[in-house]
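Lay summary. Proteins are chains of building blocks that fold into shapes, and those shapes determine what they do. In this project we predict the shape from the chain. Here is one chain we studied, written as its sequence of building blocks.
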Amino acid sequence: MILVFGGTTEGRKAAEVLEEAGSPYFYSTKTGEQDIALHHGTVISGAMNGEAMLAFCREHGIRLVVDAAHPFATQLHETIARVCSDLQVPIVRYERIYPPRNPNITWIDDYSEIAPLLSLQGGRLLATTGVQSIGKLKWLEKEGVKVIYRILNRKSSIQLAHQQGATDDQLCFYEDNILPDADAILLKESGLSGGFSEKVEAARQKGMRIIAIKRPKDPSRPPLKGEENNGGWRVVNGPYGLRRAVEKLLPEFYPLHSGLTTGTCATAAAVAATIRLLKGEMPSEVPVLLPDGETISVAVGYGDGFAYCIKEAGDDPDVTNGIEVRAAPLSSPQEGENLTPVPLGLENFEVYAGEGIGRFTLPGFDYPPGEPAINKAPREMIRRNLEQLSIINYQLSIILSVPNGEEIARRTFNPRLGIEGGISIIGVSGIVKPFSEEAFIDSIRKCMEVAKASGTERVVINSGFKSEQYLKALYPGLPAQAFVQYGNYIGETLRIADELSIPNVTLGVMLGKAVKLAQGHLDTHSKKVTMDKEFVCGLLDEAGCPINIDDITLARELWERLPAEKLAAFSKVVIAHCLEYCAPLLPKGNLTILLIADDGTIYSL
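And here is the predicted shape, written in a compact code that computers can read:
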């Protein structure tokens, strides 16, 4: 069981991540005032001291704690650290993302450092440090400083403010979205989710002096057996990092596990190779900044003159699972003459695509034919991560490669897409969530985009290799890119065709999927829908061939049961029903549906 300490934006995000598992967990807040709806989590409210937390964890068998509480809740963090150390329970600290500390801001460690900084007798200080800090700032009023407190506009916060001596004319509220005039503003380093950057910018525009209290450090505790030497905390700052931490610490919580994209692997290898080259260090994990702004740790390794990252697909089926993505420094300028550069916009850092990385040969991608098959998001990831390594004073060149990449690529969609010579380095988020449906639909979309870019007059969608071969014989003049496999996702493929304004679409379907589609099931996967014999009997009656099908298990057996003279009539009925559900998905285009028999005979309306 997992116990989350939330009540924050990070707490809400943590709950969203855990909800994906469908497993039970607890979500704890101090006041219970956070509006959060959970399907699998149980909300508990009320502050816990060490004794209460210890008892709760023992009673409910807590095996992992996610600390997503406010960064300034130091007492709670210390209690969590102490209790988890006693119970030998691991902690994942869901931290915020913090912008770099601006040198134009006055940074202090705690409230005691404010006095010598102010010199505000007769002036106004706007404090946005929370209702709990009012008591710590009341002494400033005796020094002639008018203090305005910005708090949440809720009954409990106002009541607490009054208890600490604040008057109504000293209170303003976040909900007003107007920053009162003041000579200086006092902030907590609350990170991006705490609106820190927005508050700083608003204060700057009003000409205020900006004073910020640094976020406290997480308390330390002895690391558990097998933990990294990180003071006992596994720190994440985003949803992907949290999920991967939970998958590692409590594998059974998620029925399916996530993985890494080839783009993340290439980035990690490039970072590791650069660190090794510049610092002589070979860390076992390197930080990788993802497109959403969070940072995850990625395992890397080292060989003779290169660094590598092993592609992990998680539980999403992928033939690239386990491949090695390498990064090595360029041995000589001459070596680079035989390689294809990857433009990143870094003046002093060059990246080349080497062995096993494919090349675009057709239009329809982020980059023109001839460029390495490294998509836009991975290129941006590599650029941003290398920039963070302070490489500005160095002139460096890195070669990316994938051993056996050309052979592996033959088992992917790459040949159909016109990517030759190796695999493609892809990934939008940097993480592969274990939903093969999402990944497959993304692949369909890319295939459809390439089909459109090929200039074909018609796109022919089909379920797989067998049906595609029959359809290629029917349309010999169409380019290979015009044939797109939908797997089971007929509805999604037609919607994509409509979004791309493809004018003519042929849908080839075999009988097993056709009888499901005719009933309105646009996703024909056997895990979601099976053949409805009663419905099939209705189709047979409509075609004028009522036959007994009680003993059949597969729809394709109908081809053997139906009289030869009734095959065409039955096929027309099936196609007509399929059109009823499919045609509305392509309102601006022309849709042709072809029913393909096992022997390759093709039926149409």
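What the prediction tells us: The radius of gyration is 30 Å.
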